[in-house]
Amino acid sequence: MAVTGKVSAPLTPEQIAIVKSTAPALKAHGEEITSLFYKNMLGAHPKLHNVFNKTSQETGAQPRALAGAVFAYASYIDDLGQLSDAVARIAHKHVSLMIRADQYPIVGEHLIAAVAAVLGDAVTPAVAEAWTAAYQALADIFIGLEASIYAEQEKSAAGWNGWRKFKIAKKVPESSEITSFYLTPEDGKLPLPGFKPGQYVSVHMHVPELGCMQPRQYSLSDVPGQDCFRISVKRDAGKEGGVPGLISNRLHSDYNEGDVVEITHPAGTFSVESKTGSQSPIALISAGVGVTPMVSILNSTVAEGSTRPVSWVHGARSTEVQAFASHVRDVCERNPNVKATIFKNNVKDDEVKGVDYHFTGRMDLEKVDRKQGLFLDDPEANYYICGPPVFMRDIQQYLVKAGVSESRIHMEVFGVGDGE
After folding, report:
1. Which residues form the Globin domain (predicted)?
2. Chain centroid to CA 240: how far?
3. Angle 334-411-29 (CA atoms, 0-180°, nearest 5)?
4. Domain hosting residue 246, numbered range
C-alpha cells in the first residue's frame, strides 16, 4: 500500500493488534530501520538535506530519536492520548522547520520500505498493510495539528509563515562561550509577534561544505513585546569527542552586527502558562546553555509584576562560562520572591559563597532547600528543566522519587545539534 497524504480511515481492531504485536521487533531493530530510512530517503530526495540536521544524522541521534518515537507509537496505538504531549512538541518542531504536508507521503514510503527491508519475511502483506494504515493515521494527526499552528501564526498580530530575514542589530558576549544575538526584521516592519516565554525560533543558513541549508533551533532568551528577538548561542568546539556546533560556531565566528539571518516564527510547547494572579511556585532548573529559555521565563515573570515564588537553580562549570550571572543576582536583589541556587564545578579564591555560588561540584538537588528551593511540599509547584539530556533525566528522576507528579515536570528537549 502507498501512503497517499489523504485522510485515512480508522484502523481496524486487527490492524491495531498487528501494530502492537510488532512493537518488540521495532524496539530490537529500531535504529537499523531508521538509519536505513534516512539513508534511502535523503538519497532519493536530496533537497530534504535542507531540513534534516546533518550533525544528528552523523552522530546517530536522529535515527535513535525516530526509533524511539516509532516504538512509542506502536506501543500506544490504541491509546494515543498517552502521546499527546510528545505529538504537540514534535508538531511545533515541524512547523519551526517548515515541514509541509506533501512531505509526509515521502517519509511514509521510505519508512515502510525500511521496515520491510530490515524485518524481511516478518513483514507479511497484512503487516505491511497495518503499518501503512498506522503511518497514514499518524500523518493525518500531524498534518492537521501543524496546519492549525501555521494558521494561528499567520493570523496572529504581526505573525508570518516561512523563513523571514532578520538583521543582527547587536552581538553581545554573555560569557566566554555564550553570545546573545539581537535580531530585528530586515524589512523594518514592527511590531514583532508575541511568544510564550520558553519558546524558540529556527535559524538556517547555507553550509558550503555540505552544499545545503542547515537549520538549528535556539530558545528566545528575553521577554516578548520588544522590537527584537534575542537568542543566546553557545560556541561549541566539540570537546571530549563531541561534534562541533556547525551553525552555532558560524554565528560566533562569521556573523556580526549588520549581517542577516533567516528565522521562522516562534514556536514550541515549553513555556509557563501565564495565569493572572497565580501564586503557584515555579522552579527553573538548568545547566550550561540550558539557561537560555529560563532567562526568558524569569524575565517575563518579573516583568509581569508577579509575586509568585520562583526558584532559580543553575549549574555551570565556572564563572567564565556562566551566562547571565550578574543579571540573575540583580533580579534576586530586586525581587524577594526570586531565590537562586548556583552550583559550580570550579570556584576561584575570590568568589564569595552565597553570592557568586552556593555549592561546588555538579548539581545535587539534595543540597537545595526543600521548601524555598524546590517547593517539594507544595502540590501546585511546577518544574522547568533544560540542559543536556542526561542532566534532564537525572533531575526528572529525582523529582519523581521526591513525589512530584510527572504532569508538573516540563523539559525542553532539543535534538543533538539543536539549540546548540
Report:
1. 10-147
2. 23
3. 165
4. 164-263
Q: pLDDT band at residue 169, thresholds of 50, 70 and 90?
A: very high
Q: Are residues 150 and 169 in the same domain?
A: no
Q: Do 327 and 213 share a structural domain?
A: no
Beta bridge partners of 310: 282, 338
Instruction: Please give the single-letter amino acid code of residue 23.
Output: A
Query: Residue 216: is it exposed, middle or buried by C-beta count within 10 angstroms (0-12/13-18/19+)?
Result: buried
Active-site residue list: 104, 146
Alpha-carbon distance of 249 to 420, in angstroms, equals 9
Q: What is the pTM of this model?
A: 0.93
Q: Which amino acid is at 378?
A: D
User: How many structural domains is the chain composed of?
Assistant: 3
**407 and 356 within one domain:** yes
Tens of pLDDT, residue by residue over 101-156, are 999 999 999 999 999 999 999 999 999 999 999 999 999 999 999 999 999 999 98
The 10 Å Cβ neighbour count of residue 18 is 22
Q: What share of the chain is helix, strand, coil (3-state, %, to 5)?
A: 45, 20, 40
Residue 360's domain is classified under what CATH number? 3.40.50.80
What type of residue is 69?
A
Q: Residue 13, preceding bond cis, omega within 30 degrees? A: no
In a domain, 46, yes or no: yes
- For 125, the grid coordinates are 502483506
Judgement on whether residues 135 and 106 belong to the same structural domain of the protein: yes
Structure confidence by residue, pLDDT tens digits, 352-387: 999 999 999 999 999 999 999 999 999 999 999 999
